[in-house]
Amino acid sequence: QRGTKESMRYGDWKLVRxxxxxxxxxxxxxxxxxxxxxxxxxxxxxxxxxxxxxTAHMEKAQEVPWRRPGEKR
Length: 73
Prior knowledge:
Oligomer: single chain
Low-confidence stretches: none
Radius of gyration: 15 Å
Largest sheet: 3 strands, antiparallel
Number of helices: 1
Order of helices and strands: EEEH
């Protein structure tokens, strides 16, 4: 899907995925504010912890009724 990105920030950490099904990248924004060093492979526990939180949030967001009652598509 065009324009679909997923990301979350938790403290100094940022998790990003540019395309659905793509790989996640993990950055420490305090040490690397320009996101030059992907730490996803070096820190799999932190990456997986953040993926779990992001996935739960995205699943919950799917349940939000974005349209007003009676509004048509």
